[in-house]
Every structure is written in C-alpha cells, then in structure tokens.
Design brief:
Helix content: 55-70%
CATH architecture of the largest domain: 2-Layer Sandwich
Shape: elongated
Oligomer: single chain
Order of helices and strands: HHHHEEHEEHEHE
Number of strands: 6
Radius of gyration: 26 Å
Largest sheet: 6 strands, mixed
Number of domains: 2
Length: 259
C-alpha cells in the first residue's frame, strides 16, 4: 500500500503529460506540448528513483530475513542438544561438557563484551559477501588485537574498554565480534582497503584516549581484493594480524592480494 501511495505523484505527472499532449495535438499549441514533455519527464525521473528505493529496501529486508532465519534455525538445534545432554549418564560427563561448549558457541552475543559472537559474525559475513558479489561492492574484515605490558609481558587489554570504543567508532551497518577471548573481528560493509585502515586508525586513537599504555595490532583483508570466500578473507586477516604482531609498536598490516 505504501508503494502505491508513493507512486501517485508519478502517475499524476504522467496523466498531466498525456492530457497536455492530446490538447497540443488538437490545437497545435506548442506550449501544451512543452507541458506534456515536462510532465512525462517528471514521471520518468520519479519512477526511476522510486524503483531504486524499493530495490534497496527489498535487498536490506532480504539480508535481515536471512540472518534472522539462520538465528532461528539454530534454536531447535540448541534445544535438542541440551535435552540430549541432560539424558547422558554420569559416565559421559566429558561428552556433556563438549555439547555445552558447542551450545555456547552458537549464542549470538558475547557475554563478556556485549559484542556479537563468532557464530553470528560468520553467518553475517557469508550474507554480506553474497550481497557484495551481486552488487560489486567491497567488504572489509579486520582482525584487531589490543595488548598491554609491552615490551616485557604483553597481555590482552580490558575487553570491555576495547569493545566500548569499537561500538562508538563503527557504523550501525558494521559488525564487531570478540573471538576466542583474544582478539576482535570487525566486518565493515561497503568498505575498501583504505577505508578499513582509516577505521582501525580511528579505533586506535579512541582507545589511546582511555589507555595510552596499550598497543594496537591489526590485520586487514578485503573482498574482492584479497580473497573471494568468507573463510579465505578471515584467514587472510588473521595472517596479516600475525605479521603486525611481529612489531613491538602500533601496526596495521594489509593482506596479500589474491592471485
């Protein structure tokens, strides 16, 4: 119904153009012909922008639906595994622990930081890469590590502080996750290599405002510049992070370009 209402101005402009055109043909009045042309042009321009708006809205709705459906599909699996673990005998305690660990990995939010979980990050990355492939847009993945205690005994900086800074810097369309309690993964939509580097630099500057003693390492990988599949992009970002960690100071490394 909203789409129909939005199209009313275009239909009205087209109607005016048709009426003016008929009147111009009957009377030979060039002014009416000009009105007809302007009305038809206005209808065409409005219809074009309306079509683009509707296409973008449907694309966003499609992505959100896919992500929510994936999350909902996880719920029955978690419930079945939880019920199964409760039926296990005491002698199978180790198996129950493994089942519990599997369930924890499927939680959508990381409880220690409030960021998204690794499972949600992986699902979202797949969806964003698929959309980027259709629309020929870049996607960046950043593996980020923040440590204290250099150069002697480096250890992770307070995760809540880092997570709060990341949420403050990133856009609403971006995704941040805490991976294995060690480093942070950032998913930057419609972002090329230089944009990802600038985002990391903004995160670094904000973190230093809270704790000047930390060191920030980051690895950047982008689709399609460095890899074409989601798992390959994550692996490339992790490899770049390992290269950054070899420096005993702030460092951002970019992945090697795909062959």
């Amino acid at each position: 119904m909203n789409d129909i209402k939005a199209a009313v101005p275009a239909v009205f402009a087209a109607f005016v153009g048709v009426v003016a055109g008929i009147a111009s043909a009957l009377t030979g009045n060039t002014a009416l012909g000009l009105v007809a042309g302007i009305g038809a042009l206005g209808a065409g321009v409005f219809a074009f922008f309306l079509a683009r708006r509707l296409a973008d809205a449907r694309q966003i709705q499609h992505l959100l639906t896919n992500e929510l459906r994936t999350a909902q599909d996880q719920a029955p699996v978690e419930q079945n595994e939880a019920a199964e673990s409760q039926r296990l005998p005491e002698s199978a305690e180790s198996g129950a622990i493994m089942a519990g660990n599997h369930l924890n990995s499927a939680v959508l939010v990381d409880e220690s930081t409030g960021l998204f979980s690794e499972a949600f990050f992986a699902v979202t990355l797949d969806a964003r890469i698929s959309a980027a492939r259709r629309h020929l847009r870049p996607v960046a993945v950043v593996a980020l590590e923040v440590v204290e205690g250099l150069p002697d005994e480096p250890h992770p900086a307070p995760a809540l502080m880092v997570a709060s800074t990341i949420r403050h810097v990133l856009r609403e369309s971006d995704i941040a996750s805490h991976i294995d309690g060690k480093y942070f993964a950032l998913l930057l939509e419609d972002t090329p290599e230089n944009g990802a580097i600038w985002t990391v630099e903004r995160v670094r500057r904000e973190i230093l405002k809270s704790n000047p003693a930390v060191t920030v390492w980051a690895g950047v990988a982008c689709y399609p510049a460095h890899a074409f599949q989601s798992d390959e992009i994550v692996a490339a970002a992790k490899t770049a992070l390992l290269s950054a960690r070899e420096w005993r100071q702030h460092r951002i490394e970019v992945a090697v370009a795909a062959d």
